[in-house]
Design a protein that fits this description.
Length: 221
Amino acid sequence: MEMRKTYICSLGFDATSIVRLIGEKGLTANDTIILVTTTHTHPRAETAIKSLKDFAEKLNPKSTIDVIRIPETSLEESLPVLVQRIRQEKSRGSNIIVDISGGPKNIAVALYLAAALAPADEVHLTSEVTGERVHLPLIPIHLLLTPRQLKVLSMLPATLTELSQKLQVSKPAVSRLMARMKEKGLVTMNKNRYEPTPWGRILLYTQHHPEAAKEDRPPIN
């Protein structure tokens, strides 16, 4: 039995690359197409969505097509949504095929990062010049964090003393740990308190680690 597929594609005004990808790889009754677009609606984008729905209906009427609308300007809002959906589809046994050829660049970048964080199985990008499809490697973003660093992120904001007490390690050891996290762009200092950077918050909210889950998590502002 063929493994079910989930296509997750960024979409702008032109659906050509998505149609070509799905046409080549096929669309079965168990497959799903997820179109990722901006929250700001545009008539041409809505036309592209309709054309893809019509295409899927003709190719296989039993397939599923969904639309996810995310803000262009907030990775902190969009990434958790995309990562959660990719993981949801993976839990259903899907082969996750991501295409970032269409749509605004912010949407495409968000989808690529989500594909790396989840992670997806394949990521494709079609050249605007040659029309050639490129298979992109996935950066192993999950390797950027150790379990302890992820746990520390879940404790922030906090002072050096507070972290030392919570982790039950010396202040010099905590200071060295925080210095490494600062080098990675995960934390910043504000009035003697360590705080997660936007990138640190994104990694915290999109990575599953049992130790980090035990701590109270700071809200995303």
